[in-house]
Write a structure and sequence with these properties.
heterodimer, A: 251 residues, alpha/beta, Rossmann fold, six-stranded mixed beta sheet, 12 strands, B: 426 residues
Chain lengths: 251, 426
């Protein structure tokens, strides 16, 4: 589904190489996790894939279901089926959550040459999906993420994911700022979306989230590269011993 | 005393081009206003109060031409039940207007209210007061030469708003209108204003609100591109009274909206807000002066400007708190969203406080579209241009929220969206 080959990225404004050749393939139906110390380039990878400005790709490529991602605008990547759940969802005062969701859903449909969803169908769908995530009518009406608690913001991210039905979901530290109950709720939302046709890339610092969203493959990222790949047991090893052992092993 | 030398010629030329309406109860006020204009002289580019806005075309003896703007848009406030009063190039249009009788209020026209009239004591009175400490010669000119206007006295709360509708049909029209509103104790009145009035428009609105009265005002200015307008609003608020005014302005080569508010009774509330959007040859100036002269009053100024393609926005806002105006709560925010590097925003926020137990805050910012928010929206599949429009509406929200009536809010937002989609650059 997602294929990243030797991806090299530097900051646009300064001469600082962040990704130094990342190779990663996430197959449809699989959940991959990326763990790694701070500053290893995990979030940068998620931003570069989803099209955030400020980065310059200096080498390599990335494709989604065979389509060249790096050539597309952010909105085109979304319409092609890529979704990033933000570590820090942005607050947008004055724009209702519902308006935002409907604009997003219909923009993507339009870009794919599909018919836009009617207001009635949309309302029905969003209410059903919101209910599963314990998002009440008030949260749907309020401005996007404004006044939301940390948990509410993350649930709102998952609601967007559920509404947009992407092929490939990247979750950037979705567990940060969540208490145990909120994490469970978010994980349930993600698990409900696990599907044979959909790939997941879960970026996290902690094993905890992976107890709830069970990964098929775990990667360790350090200094801009994937340095080790293994099964779920790799995450347990990190939880127990930290990164030092692994980094020493590959040094 | 004569006007400063530098202003004499321009002032005289302008006065020579006008005829002072004579006869009737307003004559003394008009003659007084004329004398004041002759003393002050009309605004000049070197005046401190006109530092950011060039007054020349507002002062010239004849109005610069302005093309009539044709639009097939649905009429503003068209879906609302309202009493319509129509002026075409500053001339009352009886056929297009509704019958002027409405329970709870009386409406007369300035030009035919010939007998002794309640407005005698008010016409020009708030304007005169508003000349101190800053001169506003165009307002005095208006009091002297206004050809017409409406005089509204609300003794009770009418069932619907009064809608002043302006139409522009002549490319050289030069209209001067003066409205007076008196809201009695316990009454509440809503006045709506919309439409391009003339090639050049000088308008004055005086509002006197008695104890416990309420005045709501929603105005739109647009969409004629070549319009020039200088408007003044003077309001006096009695005890526990409310004044809320919102203006949306789109297009117009030169607009200066001055608002002078005096809180004279305790526990009064005055909110003034504005949202404007300009693209290209656009200059918009909001100049506000609020005086707190009573205890425990609240004032809010919320002004938002969206500027692109070389447009200019100006804000001059002052809060004056007199020595006895304790427990004053004053808030002022003026912000611009610059959609490119060619546009500019000039702001002069001022606080002058003589009481010691007050809470006053002011802020002014100028910024570009928030890139993080833009990326967030785009990452959900929303195209750049639409994402930008959403963020513009988000920016304007604080000002639009000042409108209490939800239907009116909705109407303003719809117009703002339409303007954005017309000016969208994909």
């Amino acid at each position: 589904m997602l294929e990243i080959k030797n991806l090299q990225v530097k900051l646009e404004e300064e001469d600082k190489q962040i990704l130094k050749g990342v190779d990663l393939t996430v197959e449809a139906g699989k959940v991959h996790a990326i763990m790694g110390p701070n500053g290893s380039g995990k979030s940068t990878l998620s931003y570069v894939l989803s099209g955030k400005g400020g980065y310059e790709v200096t080498g390599g490529d990335a494709t989604l279901a065979g389509e060249d991602l790096l050539d597309m605008e952010a909105e085109e990547r979304a319409a092609a089926g890529l979704f990033l759940a933000f570590q820090y969802p942005v607050e947008i005062p004055g724009v209702g959550n519902m308006t935002f969701l409907r604009t997003a859903v219909n923009s993507q449909r339009k870009a794919r040459g599909e018919e836009e969803m009617s207001a009635a169908d949309f309302l029905k769908l969003v209410r059903a999906k919101a209910k599963d995530l314990k998002i009440d009518a008030d949260m749907l009406k309020r401005p996007v993420n404004v006044g939301f608690s940390g948990g509410e913001k993350k649930r709102n991210e998952i609601l967007q994911m559920a509404m947009l039905e992407p092929k490939m979901c990247i979750l950037d530290e979705t567990d940060s700022g969540l208490d145990v109950d909120a994490m469970k709720l978010v994980a349930e939302g993600v698990n409900a979306l696990r599907d044979e046709g959909r790939g997941f890339l879960v970026i996290t610092h902690y094993q905890r989230l992976l107890d709830h969203i069970k990964p098929d493959v775990v990667h360790i990222m350090a200094a801009g590269r994937i340095v080790k790949t293994g099964g779920p047991e790799l995450a347990l090893e990190v939880e127990k011993n930290g990164y030092a052992d692994i980094l020493a092993e590959i040094a | 005393m004569a006007a400063p030398l530098v202003k004499q010629d321009a002032t005289q030329a302008r006065l020579d081009a006008l005829d002072l309406p004579t006869g009737g109860w307003s004559t003394p006020a008009r003659q007084d206003a004329l004398a004041r204009v002759q003393n002050m002289g009309l605004p000049h580019a070197r005046d401190e109060y006109w530092k950011y806005t060039k007054p020349a075309t507002l002062v010239d003896a004849t109005a610069p031409k302005a093309a009539v703007y044709e639009t097939d848009e649905a009429p503003m406030f068209g879906d609302m039940d309202r009493l319509k009063i129509v002026f075409v190039d500053g001339v009352f249009d009886a056929d297009a207007s509704d019958d002027l009788s409405l329970e709870g209020i009386t409406i007369d026209r300035l030009s035919d209210a010939k007998d002794i009239h309640w407005a005698k004591d008010l016409y020009g009175a708030l304007e005169v007061k508003g000349q101190d400490p800053v001169e506003r010669p165009l307002a005095a000119l208006n009091t002297a030469f206004a050809s017409d206007g409406v005089l509204i006295h609300a003794t009770k709360t009418p069932s619907k708003p009064v809608n002043l509708i302006y139409k522009h049909q002549s490319d050289s029209s030069d209209a001067i209108l003066h409205h007076v509103v008196k809201v009695d104790s316990g009454a509440s009145l809503t006045v709506l204003e919309n439409g391009p009035a003339a090639a050049r428009f000088n308008k004055c609105l005086e509002v006197d609100i008695a104890d416990g009265g309420a005045f709501h005002h929603v105005r739109t200015q647009g969409r004629d591109h070549e319009r020039r307008a200088a408007t003044h609003m003077f309001a006096r608020l009695g005890t526990e009274s409310t004044f809320k005014s919102f203006t949306m302005t789109v297009n117009g080569v030169l607009t200066r909206n001055e608002c002078v508010i005096e809180l004279t009774g305790d526990d009064a509330v005055a909110h003034i807000a504005g949202a404007c959007m300009g693209d290209g040859d656009f200059h918009h100036d909001d100049t506000v002066f609020i005086t707190h002269d009573a205890v425990n009053c609240e004032s809010r100024q919320v002004f938002k400007k969206v500027l692109r393609n070389g447009a200019t926005g100006v804000f001059q806002g002052k809060i004056l708190v007199k020595p006895d105006a304790q427990k004053t709560d004053g808030y002022q925010i003026s912000q611009s969203l610059l959609l490119d590097e060619d546009s500019q925003f000039l702001a002069k926020p001022e606080l002058e406080i003589y009481a010691d137990d007050v809470a006053c805050s002011h802020g002014s910012t100028s910024g570009a579209i928030d890139e993080d928010a833009l990326f967030y929206l785009q990452s959900r599949g929303i195209p750049h241009s639409i994402a930008q429009d959403l963020l513009v509406l988000s920016f304007l929200a604080e000002a639009v929220d000042e409108i209490e009536d939800e239907a009116l809010q909705e109407e303003i937002l719809t117009r703002a969206e339409a303007w954005l989609s017309r000016h969208r650059k994909d």
